[in-house]
Amino acid sequence: MHNSAASQFLAPTIPVEFVFDALQACPARGADVTQLLTQAGLAHVQPLTPGNRVSVVDYSRLLRLIIQQLDDSFLGFLDRPVPQKAFAVFATQLVACTNAAQAITQLNRFYKLFSDQFHLEVLEHTEHTVIRLHLRQTQLFDYRFIHQSLLIVVLRLIHWLIGEVIQPEAVHFTFAKNHLHPHLYYLFGGPLHYASPYNELHFARGVLQVPCATTQAQVEVMVRDSQRMMLINHRPAPFTHAVRKLLLLHCQREWLSAEQVANELNLSANLLWRKLKREETRFQDIRDALKRDLSLSLLTNEQLTLSDIAARVGFAEASSFHKAFSKWTGFAPSNYRRGKPGPLQGTAE
After folding, report:
1. Which residues pair with 54 in a beta bridge?
2. Which DSSP string do the residues of 313-327 spell out, in sequence order?
3. In angstroms, rounded to a whole number, what is the distance separating the alpha carbons of residues 8 and 302?
4. pLDDT exceeding 90 applies to what percent of the chain?
5. Which of 53, 248, 291, 307 lies most in the core, judged by the most C-beta atoms within 10 Å?
6. pLDDT at 234
7. Residue 347 confidence (pLDDT)
8. Interval 322-349 mean pLDDT
9. How far is CA 194 from CA 73, 141, 153, 172, 185, in A?
10. What angle do helix axes 269-278 and 283-298 make, rounded to 10 degrees?
11. Are strands 128-135 and 53-54 parallel, antiparallel or unpaired?
12. What residues have CB less than 8 Å from 283, skipping those under 6 apart?
């Protein structure tokens, strides 16, 4: 696998449910969901297929298409559209902000020009600071996507302003916990709480007062990379990321064991296990997720047999691969291939 292709697999693919969460408001705004999926190269994706995945690149393309078609950077979730270029205009105002607290105040002022349907409230407690999202729901569609997205925007904005990835002490969602928890944990990087009274980010007290200095040139770079910045955690749980990276680097020759990975990281196997447990994962889960993502990509190559693919992802027999793939995705590999989904970016070679 070439380095450029391998790098595409450092970030996990995205659960298909995120695709349909992003499309929730489109029918109410007159957009053709089938057409949007087709234009994004996701015509094969079905809403009731948990376990199916899409690449970050394909998902980003879909978000851009929705925003362009609706001319709304909030993808139709607010009653009034917010122009596509609004975020770029808001970002230029960050140059005058000396800390993240001022940036949040400015965000509220700026977006109130377009909508009074949402705002952020900052609550200072003795030990921690809370950023609470207030969003008035006026339609019958599911608002989960916009709740998650706005909290991600705020979190990434704080990271960018202070020049450091700050893990929140807690993230609270009003919706119930579901099987998407691992991907949400990857995005937010902190303890997640569900069925809470409010959608909130919790930080150590003082984070919003950390001094920051931003230039216009830095703003332009941030705006250019803003969508990808929201979809990828550039410094997720560090040991999870390190394990995935080591597995990816060695997988063409062999699939490393937990002991081999621990040795590469200068840790004992027990210490690695404990560190991964703190990041709410296990070595086997990380390895399975990488094998799944590589398999999804390899299955789009019609020249490879199922036995070829099984061997490439570390299975001695096609039957074992079939069983594992069905467990990961809910599909038999042959059925997934017959669906002829478009190739993931960075197809494994």
Report:
1. 14
2. TT-SSHHHHHHHHHH
3. 21
4. 58
5. 53
6. 55
7. 35
8. 67
9. 26, 19, 19, 6, 12
10. 80
11. unpaired
12. 243, 258, 261, 272, 273, 276
